[in-house]
Amino acid sequence: MTDITRITVNGDSPYDIIIGRALLGEVPLALGKDVAKVLIVHPVALSASAELLRETLVTAGYEAILAGVPDSEDAKRVEVAAFCWGIMGQADFTRTDAVVGFGGGSTTDLAGFVAATWLRGVKLIQVPTTLLGMVDAAIGGKTGINTSEGKNLVGCFYAPAAVIIDLDTLVSLAKNEILAGFGEVVKYGFIADERILELIEADVAVATDPNSDAFREIIERSVAIKARVVGSDFKEAGMREILNYGHTLGHAIEHAERYKWRHGAAISIGMVFVAELARLAGRLSDDVVDRHRSVLTLLGLPISYDPHKWSQLQETMQRDKKTRAGTLRFVVLDAIGKPTIMTAPAPELLHAAFQEIV
Asked: Which residues have a Cβ under 8 Å from the Cβ of 188 and sit 6 or more positions away?
């Protein structure tokens, strides 16, 4: 086992994020001695890896059961949550048993929701296997499922007992999967840590190689930002809202595309949109807006969208969970590392910003 980095998320229920390689053996350590039964929620595509995790847990003395669920956003449906609850009920899961989320961000969102709602809460360990899961979805205790009306409209805040980030799980991922995850990574660079942007700009091939030191530094910097923010604002009452940079329009695009788009691709366009919004409002320099486009283009992420879908996107944004009493709110930048909230921008300003990304 290589060296391990531990980053603690503070708050009412503190927990560690463990980063390293060959870390499956950390899962039983995180579960502890009181747990008897473990439900491993995983996408069907990861069945072989999930079986290895199950065998690790069985060897450690646990009764481990696999729950194979659909890939991506198809997992985040109430029917899939009910499937998991059914397995737990048939196996007589008690309040001292546990759920392990093993997969990408959609899987960890679902597993968290299942753990939070079974007997009003059982122990949860998140083992994200995608870049998006590692730097965003599995950290911070947001759990949720989608409805036909929008993304993540049903869910709750529920802290895991640990998040285990095994960088080896990324080595076999397709390159476009890793690049899509960099949408969230770039977000952290713009809202909090310019060093992340500099590492990408210095050599994008090295920065996106899961075996490189630069890649690990980027992951650790991204995780540290998320940990710091959610540790100070678990239920998104204040500071945590900055993590939604690019997400208001991004989520609307995902909905318009019926969740067939990668999350990072939609967020990429969302970030360029709010950069343009801030520029048109006189808050952000041309240079920083241009840097959004250049960094995201380096990563092969999209920076424009269909001009004919503006009305549909507007309607979806009104239902966004960041909207308060019908008032749209956008996270914008005054400068790199200086995020703030723009409330109720004029419809003409929103439309003008959208025209800049078509």
From this structure: 135, 196, 221, 222, 225, 226
Give the separation between CA 177 and CA 304, rounded to whole angstroms: 20
For the chain, the farthest-separated pair of C-alpha atoms sits apart, in whole angstroms, at: 62
pLDDT (tens digit per residue) in 190-246: 999 999 999 999 999 999 999 999 999 999 999 999 999 998 877 777 788 999 999
CATH of domain 175-355: 1.20.1090.10
> If one looks up domain 5-170 in CATH, what number appears?
3.40.50.1970
pLDDT at 354 > cutoff 60 = yes
Which residue has tokens 């965003």? 136
Q: What are the sequence ranges of the domains in the chain?
A: 5-170, 175-355
295: Cα separation from own chain's centroid:
20
The helix/strand/coil state of 305 is coil
Instruction: Read off φ and ψ for residue 159, nearest 5 degrees.
Output: -75, 135
Residue type, 212: S
The answer to whether the beta carbons of residues 291 and 200 sit under 8 Å apart is no
Give the pLDDT of residue 1. Answer: 45
The end-to-end CA distance of the chain, in Å, is: 48
Give per-residue burial for 111-130: e unless 16+ CB within 10 Å, then b.
bbbbbbbbeeebbbbbbbbb
Q: Check if the beta carbon of residue 53 is closer than 8 Å to that of residue 84.
A: no
Q: Which of 142, 182, 139 is nearest to 322 (CA)?
A: 142
